[in-house]
Amino acid sequence: MARNAIGWAAHDQSGILSPFKFSRRATGEQDVTFKVLYCGICHSDLHYVKNEWGHSTYPAVPGHEIVGIVTEVGSKVQNFKVGDKVGVGCMVGSCHSCSNCSANLQNYCPKMILTYGSTYHDGTPTYGGYSDVMVVDEHFAVRIPESIPLDSAAPLLCAGITVYSPLKYYGLGKPGMHVGVNGLGGLGHVAVKFAKAFGAKVTVISTSPNKKDEAISRLGADSFLVSRDPDQMQAAISTMDGIIDTVSAFHPLVPLLSLLKSSGTLVMVGAPEKPLELPIFPLLMGRKMVGGSCIGGMKETQEMIDFAAKHGVKAEIEVIPIDYVNNAMDRMLKSDVRYRFVIDIGNTLKAD
Q1: CA 291 – CA 325 distance, rounded (Å)
Q2: Is 162 exposed, middle or buried (0-12, 13-18, 19+ CB in 10 A)?
Q3: Torsion angle, CA of 294/297/302/303, rounded to 10 degrees?
Q4: Is residue 309 a contact partner of residue 149, using CB atoms and an 8 Å limit?
Q5: Which residues fall within 8 angstroms of residue 114, CB to CB, at 6 or more apart?
Q6: How many whole angstroms separate alpha carbon 315 and alpha carbon 160?
Q7: Rounded to 5°, angle at Cα 237 from 236 and 239
Q8: Where's the Enoyl reductase (ER) domain (predicted)?
Q9: Are the C-beta atoms of 136 and 116 separated by less than 8 Å?
Q10: Tally: H helices and E strands in the chain
Q11: Rounded mean pLDDT of 46-63?
């Protein structure tokens, strides 16, 4: 029997969220049901509720950085039990039969089902974590280690895996590598922490000179480059093995390509709503690559959260009540957050 749920939803592309009642499916034999305690606010949530990518459906309950406590498990669930700390990231389903699914790359499955804004196997719309309860196939749930606080673990389920996966795949997450991180926001600050935990040298690239002290003293970056300072950029030409570009606004790529050594890679993980310009000559002159990466498969997501627990990597957060969510969206648009908003669902989302 379906269960009643409450959340906050946007109803049109104004993006304004308000209380919303809906239902979750009954716990199936392979499902894990959990009480949501915290949910991070991702830049994707903002893009989606405002229909900036052009494919939003309403009502939209956003949120794909979700953590909580298991309250019920289906009869065939093997990896979770009632009382476990659990998380859900950006996806809640896939086909389980394609080559990507077979390779633990459910994130690249053509039939991947997103945590919100998709249609589930049973034909119902998916609703995200700005809500009091989640029901998820156990294959898409992540066990949260005891040593990570739940609130600062939440953003790792999107922001964390988004930067962890390319650091691994492109060979940048190891000692001896010099990694640039372009943009010091929700994604960027976690990229710095993971790259440092892997043993790499890290340079933050930012348009904001006032972030320098924080980048180096608080987040552990080795150096800081102001991208609007021609002298600083000139001095750093051809010094980096790779750059993780986390910026989700329109920005030029040629200055970043100039920072790469020969055979270096610029990895795009931000999602600007307008196409960027990519001149080809800077790629030819130095055999440089521009690549992309989108979250990670479930096996790698579990690996990421376990690595984070072992190495003390956690997001820097500002915890907010649910009724502050519209203000938080406005502030995020202005980059006025250090560095991720996390909604205290457990204590502030009430049925009334």
Answers
A1: 33
A2: buried
A3: -80
A4: no
A5: 64, 90, 91, 92, 126
A6: 8
A7: 70
A8: 15-343
A9: no
A10: 12, 17
A11: 95
Encoded tokens for 25: 């499916």
pLDDT of residue 273: 81
Helix (H) or strand (E) holding 337: none
- Chain position carrying tokens 């995200």: 128
Taken as a whole, the chain contains a residue count of 352
Neighbours of 247 (CB within 10 A): 23
d(CA 39, CA 346) in angstroms, rounded, equals: 10
What does the DSSP 8-state code read for residue 174?
A: S
List, for residues 265-312, the tens digit of each pLDDT value: 999 999 888 899 999 999 999 999 999 999 999 999 999 999 999 999
Q: What is the DSSP string of 1-27?
A: --EEEEEEEE-STT--EEEEEEEEPP-
Q: What is the rounded CA–CA span in Å between residue 180 and residue 224? A: 9
DSSP 3-state of 291? strand
How far apart are the C-alpha atoms of 234 and 299, rounded to whole Å?
41
* Per-residue CA distances from 213 to 209, 221, 224, 267 (Å): 9, 10, 9, 25
Task: Round the average pLDDT of the chain to a whole number and report it.
Answer: 96
Q: How far is CA 326 from CA 17, 238, 289, in A?
A: 6, 42, 39
pTM tops 0.85, yes or no = yes
- Reply yes or no on whether the pLDDT at 184 is more than 90: yes
Structural tokens at position 147: 């040593």
Q: How many CB atoms lie within 10 A of CB 103?
A: 11
Look at residues 94, 130, 140 and name the one whose alpha carbon lies nearest to residue 302. 140
